[in-house]
Amino acid sequence: MANYGKPAITAQYSRQDGRTAVVTGTGGLGFEVATKLADLGARVIIAGRNAQKGHDAVAGIAAAVPGAELRFEVLDLAALASVKDFTGRMIAQGGSIDLLVNNAGIMSPPQRRVTVDGFEAQFATNHLGHFALTAGLLPLLRKSGSARVVSVTSIAHRYGRMDFDDLQCERKYQPGVAYCRSKLAVALFARTLHQRARAQGWALASMAAHPGFAGTNLFAAEGGPKSFMTLLSTRLLVPLLGHSAAAGADPILHASLSPHAESGRLYGPTGFLEMRGATDECPYGASALDDEAGERLWRLSEELAGVSFGA
User: Fold this and answer.
1) Is the whole-model pTM more than 0.85?
2) From CA 252, how far away is CA 256, in angstroms rounded?
C-alpha cells in the first residue's frame, strides 16, 4: 500500500529473540506489526478466523523476513468456543507469552449482526472476544515476568458512550454508534487491566494504542470494495488526512516494544486530530477515564464471556 503523506518515524527497537508474541488479525495493522516483530527475532503467532488469509500472511512475512519464526493459528473472536479452543491449545503447549496484541476488529456493518453466542458483532469481536482471549492467556502472560498486553482502540473511542441498558443495540442499531462504543470498551478494558494488574501484583503491563486514520481494509471488509465509504476513504480522505497501514502500526509497536511506553497509557499519532504524525502519548477520551464504568464493564464481560481473571 502506498504511503499517504509523511509517515511517523518508527523507533529503533531492541531485538526480541526468545520472546513470544500473539497478534490477532491477519491483514492491515496486524500484518505490519507481525512483520516487524518477526524481523526483530520474536516468535510470532498470528491468529485469525480465515485460514487462507492466515497462511498467506505467514507466507508474505516469511518471504520478507527469511528465517522468521512464525505460524498461524485459527481464532474466531466472534465465537467464544473458538477463543476457548485457542487459549486451551496455547496452555497445552506450555511456555510463556511475552506480548499479546489485541488488534483484530470489524467496523460498522450496515445491518445489525449477532454472533453465534447472540452478541452484537462489533461488541463481540472488538471487545468481548479479546477480553476472553486475554483472560484465557493470563497464566502464560504472567509466566513471562515482563509481559505486555496492547489493546488497539480508535480515535472513535472518544465519541463512544457505554449504554449498559442496551449494550447489544437491540432497541436501536446505528453502525457508527456501535463501533464507537466497542472501541470505548477496548479503551476501558486496557485501563482496567492496568489497574487490576497493579492491585494484584501481576508483572503485566497493559497499554492502549490507536493507529490514527490508517489505510486498512476495514471499510472494504464490511461495505464491499466498491462501496461509497470505501471509495471515499481510500481515494480521498486517507490520502488527504491519513497515512498507510505501516505508519498506523507504529503506535502499536511503540506500546509493544518501547522502553518508554508506560502501562495504563494510550499511544497514537500526534498530528492533526491524531489522524497521522509521529507517535507519542495521547489523551484518553473522558468516557474512557470513568473507572466505575470500567469496573462495571469488566464484571459484565466476565459474566457474558464465562471467564474469570481470578484473584
Assistant:
1) yes
2) 6
